[in-house]
Design brief:
heterodimer; A: 290 residues; alpha+beta; Uridine Diphospho-n-acetylenolpyruvylglucosamine Reductase, domain 3; 2 domains; 5-stranded antiparallel β-sheet; 4-stranded antiparallel β-sheet; 12 helices; 14 strands; globular; B: 158 residues; Ubiquitin-like (UB roll); 16% strand
């Protein structure tokens, strides 16, 4: 196995250009090392951990920027994230175990592109962008287009993710991330639901609603028809229940050892209903009307 | 291909030549002989191989040994001072928080990290601190007792 520790982004990108599909990028390593032990050792390993200044969380003119090497634990313990992006905090807090959160990076979780990746549905509803470097320059890839399938992203084998850019949601919005798993810690989500809801100025209607679903399709997805059913509507229980049913229909789950497709749809419906009620309460302080 | 690394384990300097695909767990156990770091699931799920990496608890089975170049590592072997056990170790013994003992070094490191960052942990913080460590024998109750006693003793000492 060839092994490299590039010291600059440029050096890393040129290694990826040279080795293409043969190269595997490693950051925290919590997924890559498991593959190396139990599946296959890559013919070239590019360890990007020694590139300086890729671990940061900073606010910048309406955006929060998170460096690709930022450990999940740094996100969880950042007061800036807690205050400005409670949704991202929640996802980080529910991520695996403390030991893994100390090691795993946000960039690794994104590039792994697992349908159940804990940070992905939240980043999808936040309409984040992946800032990536290619040999021809930088590209900004919106999360809505980034994921192509399990383990597949627009980065391909040549792009290096450098930063996650997140526009801060309106201050009066409310959000929640709900995960369904057998065990709280160290368990992969059977279903994850992220909700970001912005009420109108009167606090009666849903002005903007975004619902992200994890682990129920080949990529994390938005529940578009559920969102549409709520947009501009007064937040009444019947409307919420209809949206939750639509979210279950928007999901494209499979049956595997963790749960059946049918069960996953039920959970999507239940978590969407609950998530909408909680996000509405977080935004307005009110319960959903009967 | 091989790689030369330098690191500090339990306050002692080491220099070694490694295969870059080696995990920190295998390196600590097989090359340096720190057998207190236990190998169990080898996939980052059970916590038996927990060590402190620059003061933070991590699963050494899913960390590259290469990433430990320049780092300070603490394993369970580094806690006692001569014959005097660390208060966390003594509390595990006193409360019977050990049965087969295989998960114990990982638990003890997670608890040491907890008490390094919080002197007076809440029940919730205790649960979070060891939720990445799995014990198949004790049912956890005695372990939680041990953590509370260790916290009290450390507080009394300081």
């Amino acid at each position: 196995m060839d092994y490299f520790e590039p010291k600059t982004i440029r050096e890393a990108v040129s290694l990826l250009a040279r080795y293409g599909e043969k190269a595997k990028v490693i950051a925290g390593g919590t997924d890559v090392l498991v593959d190396m032990k139990f599946k296959e050792e890559p013919s070239c390993l590019v360890n990007i951990k020694r590139i300086p200044a890729l671990s940061y969380i900073r606010e910048d003119d309406g955006f929060l920027r998170v460096g690709t090497l930022t450990p999940i634990r740094e996100i969880e313990t950042s007061s800036l994230v807690r205050q400005k992006l409670p949704l991202l905090w929640e996802a980080a807090h529910q991520f695996a175990s403390l030991q893994i959160r100390n090691t795993a990076t946000i960039g690794g979780n994104v590039c792994r592109a697992s349908p159940s990746g804990e940070m992905l549905a939240p980043l999808l509803v936040l309409e984040a962008s992946a800032v990536a470097r290619f040999s021809r320059g930088e590209k900004k890839l919106p999360f809505g287009e980034l994921f192509l399938g399990p383990g597949q992203t627009l980065l391909g084998s040549k792009g290096l993710l450098t930063e996650i850019e997140i526009a801060l949601p309106p201050e009066r919005s409310g959000s929640v991330y709900l995960k369904h798993a057998v065990r709280g810690a160290m368990d992969i989500a059977m279903v994850g639901v992220a909700v970001l809801l912005t009420p109108d100025a009167g606090g009666k209607k849903a002005k903007d609603v975004r619902i992200g679903l994890g682990a129920v399709a080949p990529t994390p997805i938005r529940a578009k028809s559920a969102e549409k059913a709520l947009r501009g509507k007064a937040m009444a229980r019947a409307v919420v229940e209809e949206a939750a049913r639509r979210a279950a229909a928007d999901a494209k789950p499979i049956t595997d050892h963790r749960a059946s497709a049918e069960y996953r749809r039920w959970i999507v419906e239940a978590l969407t209903r609950k998530g909408l009620a909680q996000a509405w309460k977080a935004a307005t302080g009110k319960e959903v009307d009967r | 291909m091989s790689l030369n690394i330098r690191l500090v384990v339990n306050g002692r300097r080491h220099t070694a030549k490694i295969n870059p695909a080696t995990s920190l767990l295998d390196f600590l156990r097989d090359t340096l002989g720190y057998k207190g770091v236990k190998i169990c699931c080898n996939t980052g799920e059970c916590g038996a191989c927990t060590i402190l990496f620059n003061g933070k608890p991590v699963n050494s089975c899913v960390v590259l040994a290469a990433d430990a170049a320049g780092a300070e590592i603490v394993t369970v072997e580094g806690l006692a001072e001569g014959d005097r056990l660390h208060p966390v170790q003594q509390a595990f013994i006193d409360t019977g928080a050990v049965q087969c003992g295989y998960c114990t070094p990982g638990f003890i490191i997670s608890v040491k990290a907890l008490l390094d960052r919080t002197k007076n942990p809440t029940a919730e913080e205790i649960e979070e601190a060891v939720s990445g460590n799995i014990c198949r024998c004790t049912g956890y109750t005695k372990i939680v007792d041990a953590i509370q006693i260790a916290a009290e003793r450390l507080q009394a000492r300081s």
